Amino acid sequence: MGINTADDAGVFQVRDDLALIQTVDIFTPVLDDPFTYGQVAAANSLSDVYAMGGTPLTVLNVVGWPKGVFPLWVLSEILLGGQDKVTEAGAVVAGGHTIIDRELKYGLSVTGVVHPSRIVTNAAARPGDALILTKPLGMGVISTAIKMGQAAPELEAKVGRIMATLNKTAAEVMGRYRTHACTDVTGFGLLGHLHEMMKASGVSAQLYFSEIPILPEALPFAMGETVPGGTKSNRAYLAPHVRLHPVIAEAQATLVFDAQTSGGLLISVHPDDADAMLTELRDRGVEAASLIGEVQAGEAGTVAVGP
Q: I need a surface site. Which of 31, 146, 266, 298 has the fewest CB within 10 A?
C-alpha cells in the first residue's frame, strides 16, 4: 500500500500476521517554544501511523539545523520535546540524522506495526457512514498569528497543547468499532483530506458547518491577514470539488480549508456505531470529538458543506 490512494503511510506486509507502516514528516517551527515545537512535530509525524490503525514502534529524528543561528540548547530542547511524545506513544528513538540547512526543521521517520487484517485505509468509506473529527480546526491561522506576534501567550500555550496531543487514544477507540476509513487532518485542511478520502473511496460527503469543532479564537484571525499560504492554496485547488452553502461566511469558509498542523483523525464509521464511538472518545478525554457529516453516494471526491 502506497501513494496510489493518497494514504497516510506506506504499508509493507512481512508475514500473514504482521505488516510494517512507514512514514516521515518534517516542518519548520509553528511555535516559539522549542520543547513544545518538538512535541508537536513528533505528534504530527506519529499521527500517520495512528491513522492507518497501527502502533508506532521506532522513530528516527530528522533535523535541518541553521548553523550559527541558534544556541545548541535550542536543538536539545526540540529533541527532548520529540522524545517526550515518542515515549508517550510507547515507541523508541533509534537514532536520526542532522544536516546543515538555511532554516530550522524537525520531524520524524516512523516505523509502526499493524495486523494486515486491521489496516485502516483512506479508500474504503461507504455511503451512509458517519464522519467523526477528533480535534478542532483553526490551528493554521492561529499559528500564523503567533509567527506575526499577534497571539497572546495563553493562546499559544492552548494551541500548543492541542497540537502536541497524540492521536493515540482516538486510534485505540477507532479500532473498537466498524471503522471503514480514516485519515489525519494536516496540511491539506479538513476539506482537502476529506476530498482525498472520498475520491479514493469513490463516494462524496455532506458536512454540516455548525457541527464542525472550531477554536473560537481562530475566527477573528481568519478575517484578517493571518491566513496561511497553504490555506489559500487549499481553497484554490479544491474549488471545483467543494460546494459551500451561501450562508457560510468568508471567514468560516477559510477555516474549513485551513492548513492544520498535527490535527485530529477524520474517521468514516458505520452509522450504527457512531454514537457509541463518539461517547467513548469523549469519555476518554477526546473532548472535541464531533460527528460532522456523512458519506453519500455521488461524484467521487465532491464535498458539500451545509450550515
A: 298
